[in-house]
Amino acid sequence: MSWFTLDIVVFIAVLALALYYSRRYAWWKRAVDYKQPRILMYHMIHNPVKGAKFNSLRVSPAMFEKQIRYLSEQGWRFFTMSELIQSKNNLPEKSVAITFDDGYQDNLQNALPILKKYRARATIYLVVDRHKREWSSKRKPENTSGELMKEAKLQDEEVRELLNTGLIEIGSHSITHENLPTLGDAQKKVEIMNSRKQLQEIFGIECDAFCYPFGLYDETDVKLVEQAGYASATTVEKGIDDLSSADPYRLKRITISGKDNFYAFRLKLKTGKRGVKK
Description:
Layout: H1 3-25, E1 38-42, E2 44-45, E3 58-59, H2 61-73, E4 77-79, H3 81-86, E5 95-102, H4 106-117, E6 122-126, H5 147-150, H6 156-164, E7 168-172, H7 185-203, E8 209-211, H8 219-228, E9 232-238, E10 251-255, H9 262-271
Parallel strand pairs: 1-5, 1-10, 2-3, 4-5, 5-6, 6-7, 8-9, 9-10
């Protein structure tokens, strides 16, 4: 092979690599206005489990602290979801809401010490009947490993411990984490309306934030969430909303994956997505 041919091969390889990373990370995209708050979506704060299917839901404690420390050092202001909605027309630049879905025990054991350290407020969307439930197959029938069912969930006394810190808000993630669009109207009402009532009665709180299980919903669900008295509802649609004009019952979030490196986290904070699509 001649030097000229080798140079062409190297050039093509470098170009292909550059195009791949440009698409994967979209570093060239302009930042979404920092007047628009970021809503971050987490599930577990836990080291990855070897061979597990859902490691994308597990952000390691070390990476979580790195992320929260970065937010704190860069001047981001932490809000619960209810605070974010209440202040939506008067939010400072760099406002952020940290949200956790489902109610895993590691939110207390691993996330809370870090949140305390940086005085970071957060919202936990709690499944009311969350223990010994396998709900991943409700989204896709092939998701029947039982992996998430085996993950320890918060006990009620642990939820009270979280509430007593003054840093944590409890929102609803339905009664049983059902796939709402597949349900009849009566079941929808139980999952959406009764979950708010039960959380308020159990913990003596105002439950103003809702999160659609799997991020799946239909028009009836949106209407029921509003009728139930919630002030907001979050989805899993990726992006950053302008709260002054966005529908408060269809809010986008930034997905924080356990498979993200720190560079990906910073890019998501900037644009709402890691790359062109994700």
